[in-house]
Design goal:
Length: 497
Amino acid sequence: AILFALILNGCAKRGAPPGGPEDKSPPRIIASSPADGDALVPLNSTIEIDFDEPVKSDETTVMIYPALKNFFVRFHKKSLQIQHGAPLQENTTYTLLLTPNFSDRHGNRIGKTVEIAFCTGAAIDTLELRGNIVDGELFSFIGGAVVAVYSDSTMSKPPMRLTFSAEDGSFLLRNLPSERVWIFAGVGVGSELKWNKATKIAIPHSATLLPQNRKLTLVLADNDTLPPKIISTSAVDSFTFRLKFDEAANIDTIAVRLNAKIWRDPADSTSILARFKNSPLGKSFNIRVCDAAYNCTTLVSSVPTEAEMDTLPPNIISRKKGKILPYKSPEITASEPFSVKISAMLDDSAIHFDTMRVFPNILKISFPADLPKGANVSVALDSLCDDFENCTSDTISFTKSSEKFGEVSVSGIWRCDNPIVFLRSVDGKKFPLKKDGAKFVRSVPGGRYTVWRICDENADGKWTSGKFSLFFRYSESMQVFHDTVSVRPGWETEVKW
């Protein structure tokens, strides 16, 4: 019994596992042949890397560019060999790289791109290209994106060089030749570089002539190649019908085909409403529709045969007291197109203001810049009517912000006819700047900002991404200023790009 108790007690003992502490460090390169920077490397050389610990056998984490024929990787315990069926090319710089997913046998990743460059000629290529990978929708920097250099925009040959962006979105392409190149980037392209399968892709706006001193900004966009589809068509009333799409559609391309008032449904960003002068009930329409990526198609839509007359006046969507800010004009948004007699009062005095129609159901108001801080402006909406003379009246209050703002001025050399400049705050808010002669200016809250500029070549007021299919198109240029900008309330901040 005593012996049995001792055995049980021994089985219950706990201690550190045998073999020392747990391995949490990624593998390190001890030596390589050829070494980084070697020249005059023989064409039949064996390429080998030695590590400080056993590494995981994963061919997808080892690449070499320019690509070798009949290339494969043979892993040993603490080393790997690159074997190739054909000799290396003469007078060529090669880059052997380990991707961030390269790891030891315990799964400890190296977490960054590691490169070894060598040359079969007398002089290795030495040019470098730096830049950032940015999400074109979120304006955030993206790590882990594939960045590849091609000799032409059609990708008719394998890439010349390849790397991966770091966690902060930055990338460095080393050992490049002095020539014109095209730089592509993507997320989800796989080890086989299937760009058409990418979830997000950055297509250049032009070729890059090396050497290049400035940083490149490669902007990722959803790799959307499909045009919108109509999910449903419904008659709102006897003169209005609603089109619901599977994604947000470009309202302008629809308006070109339909002789109607077009506006986006305030309650559903994927639905568009169209109001006609004559009843569309029972009729069919050919509609040219595009999405934000300019994937376009022509769709046929049939309107239901029955619907009731509209007997309700426009409904103002927003009821909150709006703030009057120097960087944003207040808006009045209604449920449908409207006409209105509008007036504004400060205390007991009428004030002058300007209005601008954005859509048939949205009206922007510009109040005088010299309104006192904290002033409450009462806006009366009289004869607020829709197209069917359904009328009402309403009153909305706007308050001039008491916040103190800083003045920002951005100037520089603009290599495009239609530049857009905006600031982006740390919390993601966007502040478009106004063009004032050769500068772009705006009053904004104090804080730190990044400064962005876009060459709006198609003048649609936003950045347009490139795409591979159905027809190849370059993206519009987007750049981010090399440093963040600090704005102090009550001060002027000047940025010279």
